[in-house]
Amino acid sequence: MTETFDIAIVGAGITGCAIARQLARYDLSICVVEAANDISLGASKANGGLVHAGYDPAPGTVKAQVNARGCELYGTWAQELGFLFRRTGSMVLGFNSEDRAHLEQLRCNGHVNGVPELSIVGPDRIHELEPRASADATCALWCPSTGFVDPFEVAIAALENAVANGVTFMRSAPVEAIEVANQGAEAVRFTLTTPAGDVRCRYLINAAGNGAADISHMAGAEEFQMVWRQGNIVVLDKEPRTLMPLYPVPTPVSKGVIVTGTVHGNTVITATAAIREPGDTQTYAGDVNALLTGARKLVPDLDTRRVVRAFAGGRPVIKGTNEFFIGQSTVVPGLFQAVGIQSPGVASAPAIAEHMEQVMREAGVELRERADWNPIRRAPDDFDRAPLARKEELIESDPAWGQIVCRCETVPEAEIVAAIRRHPGAVSVEGVKRRCRAGMGRCQSGFCQSRVVAIMARELDCEPSEVLLEDAGSWLVEGPLKGVR
Fold first, then answer.
1. CATH number for the 388-466 domain, one of 2.30.30, 1.10.10, 1.10.4030, 3.30.310?
2. Strands of 285-346, DSSP E
3. How many whole angstroms separate alpha carbon 118 and alpha carbon 106?
4. How many angstroms separate the CA atoms of 37 and 470, rounded?
5. Which pLDDT score is estimated for 254?
6. What's the confidence (pLDDT) of residue 251?
7. Residue 30 and residue 367: Cα distance in Å, rounded?
8. pLDDT at residue 185 tops 60
9. Which residue of 67, 87, 245, 358 shows the fewest CB atoms closer than 10 Å?
């Protein structure tokens, strides 16, 4: 089967989904082609979700431009798309005069990059802003505009809105080959070969994360060399009060070990930065210990025994530079690249999408806004966060809202069903987890996973033994499931 579109976007991470949502407002047929079986299974899944403000990138870089603008846009995007976003502010803690000089440099960077209201504060103000910050800190860069999100929730919300506006999502479709035709601007230029069928398009957008170099190579475009800069991350159980993001003074290649709250009340320690073999998502004891040690320097009373999860991912770094590459290929007309989108990729995503739109417009792509474009995505009901009156209303509408499956996160059966039935919906246990947090809590699905499997088998009309944990082949059970007929 071959389908033809005006635009094909390769990659359904936060970058590709944001671009799809941005372009969905125009009178164009668009397809998002994803190698995995769900949204945001690469770098977008394996990070701390910080919306960095934009004082760290060097002024004049693409990173600086899209980071500050992306942070600014998050308030609007969160309101329109219904994902959780908290703009808490942050501090970069300094402990000596050398650190203070570095903070002054960051403040100057931020001023040039357009980051608002940056200031250097002393110990009293540090304690006022975040009482749990280290008493040894002598100074800090206070940045009110920093915040945090769940990056996969942002990607899911953006693609749901794009699909509602007519975008096609093609999952389990790794690109195996790209044929480029030497024809005019109005003709089909690219044919993508995938196991799920071929995709033909006039314009191709490469937003494939750690696979972007392969896509560029297949299209005969820029030959990128990618580095797998692996990061280990640790998640702690929920705290009575959410921590403000606290940073150390950054290094040339990393923002260092950061301690931050999350939109759901957990504490995250993120992230190490080690060069490892491509695809390595193993967690390492040395890295985890470095995270815990670094975290205690920033928050001495942090109870690091409350770890509920450790995981790892790889930043898609272009060898020899920390810069983003966003623009039309200089080799293959009609191919648009969003490559090297490492940190601050989550913070920059809305602005990368905006920037890509402008690049395409300048390249002559006709963008006529649709009269029926709807920027609003209604977020699914979150039973745990809903007011009591809404809980009662939901249970009255469907008793499955009162059947709690995940006790840690108070997720009822009806919420899991809704996660599967949305467009695009969950097709794996981890897909359910990312959409409604069933299995995300203290027990890490120890109690609820079998029930989630049973619900998925019913909803997807398959045997429990066919239900996937995540990717193809990741079956959880073999044979009959207790209590399931």
1. 1.10.10
2. 307-318, 325-328, 335-339
3. 9
4. 8
5. 75
6. 78
7. 12
8. no
9. 358
Give the SS3 label for residue 53: coil
Residues 64, 113 contacting (CB under 8 angstroms): yes
Condensed to tens digits (0 to 9), the pLDDT of residues 412-422 reads 999 999 999 99
Tokens representing 261 are 């709250």
Q: Which CATH architecture has domain 1-85+147-225+319-379?
A: 3-Layer(bba) Sandwich (3.50)
Strand, coil or helix: 432: helix
Q: Which helix (H) or strand (E) holds 142?
A: strand 139-143
Which residues 6+ apart lie within 8 Å of 372 measured at CB? none
Per-residue pLDDT at 351 exceeds 60:
yes
List of residues 6+ apart from 413 with CB closer than 8 A:
400, 401, 403, 405, 451, 455
Instruction: Name the token pair of 421.
Output: 């039935």
pLDDT by residue (tens digit) across 358-401?
Answer: 999 999 999 999 999 999 999 999 999 999 999 999 999 999 99
Q: What DSSP state is assigned to residue 198?
A: E
Helix and strand totals (H; E) in the chain: 12, 22
- Report the candidate in 67, 62, 77, 64 with the shortest Cα–Cα distance to residue 18: 77
How far apart are the C-alpha atoms of 447 and 380, rounded to whole Å?
24
Put simply, whether the predicted model's pTM sits higher than 0.90 gets the answer yes
52 is catalytic: yes
> Greatest CA separation found in the chain?
68
